[in-house]
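LOG
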Amino acid sequence: MKKFFLHTTFIIITLISFSAKAQNKISVTNLQCEMLNNPEGIDVVKPRLSWQINADVNDVKQTAYQIIVASTLENLNTNNADLWDSGKIENDESVNIIYKGKKLDDRQNAFWKVTVWTNKGEIQSKEKANFSMGILNYADWKSTRWIGYEKTSAGDSISQYSKLSARYLRKEINVKKQVKNAKVYIMGMGLYELYINGNKIGDQVLAPVPTDYTKNVKYNVFDVTSQLQEGKNALGTILGNGRFFTMRQDYKPYKIKTFGYPKMALQLFVEYTDGTKDVIRTDDTWKVTTNGPILSNNEYDGEEYDARKEMKGWNTTNFDDKNWLTAEYVQEPGGFYEAQMTPNMKIMGEVKPISIKQTPRGTYIFDMGQNMVGWLQLKVKGKSGEKINMKFAESLQTDGSLYIDNLRDARTTDVYTLKGEGEEIWEPTFIFHGFRFVEVSGFPTKPTVDNFVGKVVYDDIKTIGTFESSDAVMNQIFKNAYWGIRGNYKGMPIDCPQRNERQPWLGDRTTGAYGESFLFDSQTLYAKWLDDIKNAQTADGGIPDVAPAFWRYYGDNVTWPGTYITVADMLYQQFGDKKVIEKHYPSMKKWIVYMEENYLVNDLMTKDKYGDWCVPPESLELIHSKDSTRTTNGELIASAFYYHLLQKMKKFATINGTNSENIQYYDSLSERIKTAFNAKFFDSKTNKYANNTVTANLLPLTFGMVPENLQSKVFDNIVHEVEVTYKGHISTGVIGTQFLMRTLSQFGRPDLSYKLASNNTYPSWGYMAKNGATTIWELWNGNTADPKMNSQNHVMLLGDLLIWYYENIAGIKSNPETPGFKQIIMKPDFETGLTFVNASYESIYGLIKSDWKKAKNKLEWKINIPANSSAIVYLPTSDISAVMVNNQKLTAAFSSYYKIENNNLVLNLSSGSYAIVVKR
């Protein structure tokens, strides 16, 4: 494809011709450092800078740029680039430009702007951006001591159902001079809330993001200049348990990793207007108590809060803390200290209950109308000591009571004890629930829906994708996916938010992360997760199934650990992030070699753990199929997937420019595996692989292991299984579904993909929606299977569905030759049965839109291509006289400027807006 476009000339179609006046319609915006919206505490010595070009005119291309970086805003305003002046660089790149200026020191502030030259003229950014370096050296924390309280208190429990009261810490300081600027650096394990003079610092919740604290510990940075005042000030923190003091103590210690009691380390750097500086640190002058209102906070079981024990003014000055204890010096967690480069969680929305019903027992069931993740805020008046219990669940039993069997031993209950002083408003601090229904008991009056509001909580990342089509089932599935994905972003991608699991399983995101990237700006989240995986790797190369390895699941299979490689590939493909490949390549290769040396026998990968997990069973009551014709050979899955990963490693080696021996290694190993694979699993008489499951045929076909002259015959077997054996329904599990939709479309059956996407009978995504699902189930039969594994908010079964929505139906795909949507491939499957699709995607270059609809005799397609990008656009006709672009006809006179390819008219469009009409 790349060679074709280098050697063929295309018509460049523009909507508005450029004039001198049009320059005002071009601007440089969205200046970002490391793709962060709030770049405090950058933990990269050579950060990457990016920007977008916005234009109301067509055909805008960057030709050069100049970046100026200064140590102060005043220097920047006078163009005194005392940190870096890139000079004018003749280049069209506008993302991930590596800083090449002076060395950036600890806590260094940097202010920057960019001038861009385009084919339309010069544009200076009106925006001025800034970023700050974090504490880059471990030694700079040396004088800061970890403090806490390493004991249990009355009412605490170290058991399977662990209970531990929150730790409250405080210290008063004296600020004698006028403050110029102040920043606080805090590590609060497992979770913290920080206050200065009674005001909460930041709008984050459940901070910081979780890690394996023995490997790395994240600190957060806040500018608190406006919070400090001359004279006395009070610092206060509350420490919750989070993943540090784990939900299940002294329970399956061989499986569940524990870290200790909550603890914290803090540095407050203050610079005064006279140029002097001061540092306030955690030490033994801080005071601590566990005798506060948060009696327990356990992610599985809920939060207990006794408002009678509130300590008014505890985080302000002049509070009497004589009964508090002196904070103890405690052992540090052990992991390396790192600035958190991903957003914290926030309250990202609210949901009002849609109904309330009283049960025969006198309790009340609230229906939120949506399976959501977060918590309830309550408003109540009552007597001191009255207790309100709120129990959370995803669904109801036939008698209207909560269905809780699928929660396993998670108690999912919040308890609030009233203080009895007028209207009380409360919400939990250190837990979250996955739920649609809430059973409320102990409410002092008859509650109404106005007494409660649901708070939706997930990582503070932007929604960047929209999708709507003419098919109501597909639209509902998209909405369900959206709610399910965002609810499972918890500083890492977890599998489910409701039961006693909530773990970052790798296999759930092998391809799912790719689809998610069309909906959410998940780049920094998944870059952080790759670090978690790297940190969990064993010394000899093994990678676990869960990372961070809160559960010790080192099973040595291919399909789950392989996510390490596929997510890195996604970040490169979707966001143009080459850095993750450079950073993680050595560890990835270490795992590749580890698997070869330990499990490759006769050139086949012999180790598989999960098979094609969650194949739709033949009976609605089963979790796993017992029909051998439905299950795919594990050695086939492992060998094919290992081959697939070798191709990606070869790609990474090429990107990194590593020596040719690496590429030769991957080529040689791949060929050996392909030969052995086809020799063992392919039946040349029937053109079937193994027992002819869709997954058995699909993997080698998708991965390029099938001889080219036999591909259509293998595909015919796939089609027969889907259409005839399974009557147009899904028959694949987690592995096969990752490639099913795109492969059906790629080999000429987009109508069959559409049938699978629009079904509402079992098994299908539509069946879930038809049966009340508002997220995606863990099982295709999640409403009927044994309750021990039927989470109603999982994302692993999405497979490549969302990728297919965007790339194959909307026609928004990044050209692999130009990652990060520098060039877009727009080739929708118009002949699926849909009559319209309207989709958008906010790429790193800007907004991409694809809005098409089919009328009786024409196709209308509106396209938006961001500035400094371009698109290869496929129109479903070979008749150029049938095409109008922006009300301009294409005639035979221009036939040398575009190409007819497989009955498609192929155009190369520069940036801008286009209205295309194709007469049919």
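LOG (cont.) second protein
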Amino acid sequence: MNLHTVVVGPSDVNADDVLAVARGGARVELSPSAVEAVAASREVIDALAAKPEPVYGVSTGFGALAVRHISPELRAQLQRSLVRSHAAGMGPRVEREVVRALMFLRLKTLASGRTGVRPVVVETMAELLNAGITPVVHEYGSLGCSGDLAPLAHCAQVLMGEGLAEGPGTGEEGSEGTIRPAAELLAEAGITPVELREKEGLALINGTDGMLGMLVMACADLARLFTSADITAALSLEALLGTDRVLAPELHAIRPHPGQAASAENMRRVLAGSELTGHHQDDAPRVQDAYSIRCAPQVAGAGRDTLAHARLVAERELAAAVDNPVVLPDGRVESNGNFHGAPVAYVLDFLAVAVADLGSIAERRTDRLLDKNRSHGLPPFLADDPGVDSGLMIAQYTQAALVSENKRLAVPASVDSIPSSAMQEDHVSMGWSAARKLRTAVDNLARIIAVELVAASRAIEMRQWGNPNASPAQATREILKATREAGVQGPGTDRFLAPDLAEAEAFVRSGGLVDAAESATGLLA
């Protein structure tokens, strides 16, 4: 059981809170000040609902149907109908962690006291998260404007005791429960379904929570992968007998991009004490190493700076209360356009570009390690008996396929817009689509880095066979030891290669590669 608790108040939460709830199963607790803020904003909505003048979301229809005034006896039905009709997603199920992030972020906004829902709505949402009940949300249904409508509607439907949800599972990390009717799961957990009142259905579905949750998780994953890429780039430089002089701090100080300096310093520290570097002037003299080696900090560093910008946007969005209309501190209820996902969509697409390029340069290094004409003395494809053995030839094919897919995924979603709701919602962000493709790209990047790790570690070991007196860096030795202990086999005759690649991928994803390097270097950026 995870005993960690995230307290949600009327102010913003942070990225660590999102990760704790989405991935760590942390419990959620509402602060007394949050409940007070929610109750106060509800008084404003109740007062408006009692007036004869129409107020959007309170006593009117929605979208292009907002012209109709809804009488008091139909308003509960209005909110139910809104949720049911908007729960129109299709396609595969969305991952449990994404749904938990989406629910938690909607809870965060509801608890801000800016949406006008009753305290019972917020309290029940927290109960769902704490019970481990996860609504079934589908891949398609959000245009990233007027909120992640269909995904959030599927969550709101479960709050009402309708639709389908996944149970809490066995309690073990990563376990999944059975898909069952939400009413059964709520009853077993002792949770009373919510009967929605004025504005509450709208408040439950009108936010950027899905795309924001995926952005927060992608940023966390990429922080580890950028460090991993610096490490494998250093290993490749070492395996190719390149020079580490290009990593000198004074060279990067005269082009003061912080990400570039951080990546160069990571590589320099990994390579400290290596007896393999600096031999580029030996048998086949090189004036300079190839771009994929020499410019590794510039490319990875640009990605790091992109990540820093994305995190800034995420922090701002985490501090936001996204709904329409909103209850302002002075009691006014105003329509607005804050639900538009453009700020989040842009950085999701920006990250996909950086991810694609980082994978591309890693693949070029791998290809260089395998090409006897460019590897400076390594056997073709790092094969044990070239011709009889193919070595890592097809591992590079797999890596190239992943790189190619990431290039396609780098095409921005946010430049597209398809009008909806009878042209009332005539410009949308496609931020949900940007987030979904970024998740795939990040997964692919982990695999691309894993292939470079397999190739570079094998190359270094084979290099030592030819020159046993030339010792790799201390960090490299720790990495090779940990990689082999993780189940990734070293050089030898051809064997079933997919298990090695899978173990390398798991090693990279888990942070094992970074941990191994840091055991020698200390904390890396």
